[in-house]
Write a structure and sequence with these properties.
heterotrimer; A mainly beta (256); B alpha+beta (404); C alpha/beta (234); A: 256 residues; mainly beta; 12% helix; 42% strand; C: 234 residues; Rossmann fold; six-stranded mixed sheet; four-stranded antiparallel sheet; 10 strands; 35% helix; binds adenosine-5'-triphosphate; binds magnesium ion
């Protein structure tokens, strides 16, 4: 229930758990903070989802845009198939729990991603394979508190989240900025244990998909690689769609 | 005349002379062999290390050595190679493309290092064909054939006849993926690199990574190890318009080079041993003969020979013996080093150095192995003889002549 | 003291020498004042142990004084450097020692020409001088013998030849005839006397030999390290 599919893809996957409440004042009691965090966790969650996504990858050496279709079922299963450009058309990824497979139509082979490759990039983007697999909940896996940074803006609330002890989370802390009005995230900043900024996720273009208001655009800027950026944009998204379980099979992975 | 007296003195006391010369000769020969051996061993290791894999000189795009990247390429590599080949003393050159990727066979997957190479020039430069433990060499065309490192084949549980799917990312950002037939297994002698080594023809690799007409590295083999230094400059001139950096093996295999240099300091220990042997032998005999011939020095001084000339006389005697010992020792040293350079000595247990296994080691005949011990013997003998020589030069004639 | 360097080739003034024999002082010469003049043909006589050898050694700079001063050719010996002294000996003094003291590794000819070699005399000149003196001393044909292949007398003659061959201004001879038969000794003394007369070479001998005393023109007698008489005879 409280697990979370990787943010980038998860964008497709949630349910509107709460109506869009306007919160005019900074929440003072913990119950209120808990509510914001739970809402963050559930922002992109749903029993099932289907979406069409555009992923723009920018590096100092090249720039390209992948179009793909994404299916999710529960929190365990994800299926992605690339539809363009031509060279990658038909390439697909299946995730079930912690395991991942890629299908390569050119050689008609399914390749299981070994644990050693989990930190490698997914299809050349700034997402790692690990990002697709790992599911954490801010509510359950992190301790959090409201903070007021020096350059705080009037219309934003800031949350500092630190992973609980003993969890294999690589981040030292994450700072999340949400809109005071509707608690929709604006950005998340990931820091390592030494407090160095590692990557920034920006959210934008809040749109209504299946009655749910979510940011339709997510931008990842890794700090270690200068000039790199990945932008994910939801073109369509249907939450709680009627999706067959047989989508998430190796057999379907193979069918072009 | 001093020389004549010295020379005859050396012959007068035959037994003592023979003894002294034996110690000098022994020290010299020992040092000569140990230097020849050490140099031979290191030439062999350097050869193994450079000639068989790394090359004597490497050319890269600027900054590649510090931070290798798929994008730091040598453009139009064939022209660059041709320019290099036209330099005299360049024996061979070979282009290489390097990339990381994922290989999988059935359920097994492993991270690999893809090495695209031109089979023909690689064979000429680094005898790549000799490292193929089983199977055949790669064809020159893009045949979708691959060679696997020994360890990698084991990890993937595959062998010749199998198929490997490779996935990576091409230089244009697209997904690089293809399937290759395994035609051979490579054993470079370096276990670590054999666990990741995946060899394709340059054409296949360029196609896979969308790097047509580009490579990451050009290795150059010099006709002679001693020519590497000047060759670096000449190659730099030849490729000056291409923003490339040219490095000798001492630079790109720095840790190996430093470790080797540290090891070579062992030579100084053997030199120290000769100094000791020679010093003890010379001090003993020279001191004895000086004491015995006090009267003679007294006469010489009475006749008007200057103290300095007497000092010179003693040193000349020592140096005559040293020179004689060195000449004989050089003969024996050359002979033994020569024999060891042909036949070598095999280790009871094979030795691993820099990831390579060595079964046999060879000596080397070179000028160093003669000059360094010669200087050592002469300098140490002369230094040690200084004290007796000063004594002789200070002989008080009256007293000396009274002592019958 | 004023020294006339022209005529007074060696001047000793208040020369004393004390050796230490296992801590016991032994006075070898005591307060000797003596001047050797050019063209002297002098004999120093005295019983064994009277200090003859010691005195000769001192006046040639081979030994040092305990007290007193020695001038060689007008120069104070104690002020000369080792090198100056060496060169002075090489160029001005010929030595004949009590024991022959030839250089054992050199042949007769080489022993004789040695000093000339140090002086840089050309080879042909050396050769003719060596031949001449060998003939005079009856040693012709022995040029290539080694000292060990000679009798005592022959060795002594070679030593004399070596001392005289470079024409030094003074010859100091410690018992030159001690090992010679009387005939050879007489011949040698006559030869020296001849050289003394013709070229003005100065000779100082120490001796027990009456034959030498007879021929000497000046007789200095030592006893217990002191000069007891100094007589000039014509
Ligand atoms: N190095 C020495 N140490 C101690 N005593 C010495 C030394 N040299 C000489 N003497 C002593 O000095 C004295 C003089 O010796 P010197 O040899 O001058 O005598 P000499 O007149 O030449 O005797 P001879 O006629 O026997 O040759 C002797 O008593 C001798 O023992
Ligand atoms: Mg005497």
């Amino acid at each position: 229930m409280s697990k979370k599919v990787m943010w980038a893809f998860a964008t497709l996957c949630f349910l509107t758990a709460y109506p869009l409440a306007l919160i005019a004042e900074a929440p003072s009691d913990t119950a209120e903070v808990d509510r914001i965090v739970r809402k963050l966790d559930d922002l992109y969650r749903s029993q099932s989802s289907y979406g069409e996504v555009e992923m723009e990858i920018i590096t100092p050496h090249w720039q390209r845009t992948l179009a793909m279709k994404v299916w999710t079922l529960g929190l365990e299963k994800t299926f992605i198939r690339i539809t363009s450009p031509l060279k990658e058309k038909g390439v697909a990824t299946l995730r079930i729990g912690n395991e991942m497979w890629n299908y390569l139509p050119k050689v008609n082979k399914v390749i299981k991603i070994p644990p050693s490759m989990m930190m490698s990039s997914w299809m050349g983007s700034d997402f790692t394979n690990d990002d697709l697999v790992k599911e954490y909940s801010f509510f359950e896996d992190y301790t959090y508190r409201l903070i007021t940074p020096e350059d705080a803006k009037e219309d934003l609330l800031y949350l500092e989240c630190s992973p609980k002890e003993g969890l294999p989370i690589v981040w030292g802390s994450i700072i999340i900025a949400v809109r005071r009005a509707d608690t929709i995230p604006v950005w998340q900043k990931y820091y390592d244990e030494k407090g160095n900024l590692m990557r920034i996720w920006n959210f934008g273009e809040v749109r209504l998909f299946s009655n749910r208001r979510v940011p339709a655009v997510m931008e990842i800027i890794p700090q270690a690689k200068e000039g790199n950026k990945t932008v994910v944009r939801y073109l369509t998204a249907t939450f709680d769609a009627d999706i067959e379980d047989n989508v998430f099979t190796l057999r379907n992975l193979r069918s072009r | 005349m001093i020389f004549k007296i010295a020379f005859r003195n050396v012959f007068r006391q035959r037994r003592r002379t023979v003894l002294t010369m034996l110690t000098m000769f022994g020290g010299f020969t020992l040092a000569s062999i140990s230097i020849g051996w050490s140099d031979g061993t290191y030439s062999h290791i350097i050869d193994m290390f450079t000639r068989n894999q790394l090359g004597h000189i490497q050319v890269h795009s600027e900054g590649y050595l510090d931070r290798p990247s798929l994008y730091k390429v040598i453009k139009d590599y064939e022209n660059v190679g041709k320019n290099i080949q036209s330099i005299p003393d360049v024996e061979a050159w070979a282009p290489r493309l390097y990339a990381a990727g994922l290989a999988s066979v059935g359920e097994k997957s492993a991270g690999i290092r893809i090495i695209g190479l031109d089979p023909e020039s690689e064979n000429a430069a680094t005898h790549f064909d000799k490292k193929i433990a089983r199977g055949t060499v790669l064809n020159d065309a893009n045949t979708h054939e691959a060679l696997l490192g020994k360890g990698l084949a084991r990890i993937l549980r595959t062998t010749i006849g199998g198929e490997v799917v490779v996935v990576s990312q091409a230089a244009d950002g697209s997904i690089a993926n293809d399937i290759y037939a395994i035609v051979g297994i490579v054993d470079t002698g370096d276990e670590y690199s054999d666990q990741t080594g995946f060899y394709l023809t340059l054409q296949d690799a360029q196609e896979l990574f969308a790097l047509e007409n580009r490579v990451h590295e050009i290795v150059v083999i010099a006709s002679n190890l001693d020519r590497i230094g000047p060759l670096v400059g000449e190659i730099e001139d030849a490729v000056s318009n291409a923003a490339l950096s040219v490095a000798p093996w001492q630079e790109f295999a720095k840790s190996f080079y430093n470790a080797m240099r540290a090891d070579q300091e062992g030579m100084w220990i053997s030199l120290f041993v000769i100094i000791l042997i020679v010093a003890v032998g010379v001090l003993n005999t020279v001191l004895m003969s000086v004491l015995e011939r006090t009267r003679e020095y007294g006469v010489l001084k009475a006749l008007g020979v200057r103290p300095k000339q007497i000092f010179g006389l003693v040193l000349t005697e020592v140096n005559i013996m040293a020179t004689g010992s060195i000449i004989i020792g050089a003969g024996l040293g050359i002979l033994i080093n020569y024999l060891l350079s042909i036949h070598g000595i095999s280790y009871p247990q094979s030795l691993t150095y820099g990831g390579f296994e060595f079964q046999e080691m060879y000596s080397e005949v070179n000028a160093r192995s003669l000059i360094i011990p010669a200087i050592t013997v002469i300098v140490s003998a002369s230094l040690v003889a200084t004290f007796p020589a000063i004594r002789a030069s200070r002989t008080a004639p009256a007293r000396a002549m009274r002592a019958h | 003291m004023e020294v006339n360097a022209q005529t007074e080739i060696i001047v000793a003034e208040g020369v004393s020498k004390t050796y230490s024999d296992h801590g016991v002082p032994v006075s070898a010469v005591k307060e000797i004042d003596l001047t050797i003049r050019t063209e002297d043909f002098a004999a120093i006589v005295g019983p064994s142990g009277s200090g003859k050898t010691t005195f000769l050694n001192i006046i040639s700079g081979l030994d040092t004084v305990t007290e007193g001063k020695v001038w060689l050719n007008g120069k104070l010996l104690s002020e000369m450097s080792g090198r100056e002294l060496s060169d002075f000996r090489r160029d001005n003094i010929g030595f004949i020692f009590q024991a022959y003291n030839l250089i054992p590794v050199l042949s007769v000819e080489e022993n004789i020409e040695y000093i000339m070699l140090l002086q840089g005399v050309p080879k042909s000149e050396r050769h003719s001088k060596v031949n001449k003196i060998l003939a005079e001393l009856g040693l012709s044909g022995f040029e290539n013998r080694m000292p060990t292949q000679l009798s005592g007398g022959q060795q002594q003659r070679v030593a004399v030849a070596r001392a005289m061959v470079s024409n030094p201004s003074i010859i100091l001879a410690d018992e030159p005839t001690a090992n010679l038969d009387s005939k050879t000794g007489a011949e040698l003394l006559d030869l020296m006397r001849e050289l003394n007369k013709t070229s003005g070479m100065t000779f100082v001998f120490s001796t027990h030999d009456p034959m030498v005393m007879e021929r000497a023109h000046r007789l200095v007698t030592l006893k217990d390290g002191q000069v007891v008489s100094d007589e000039i005879r014509e």
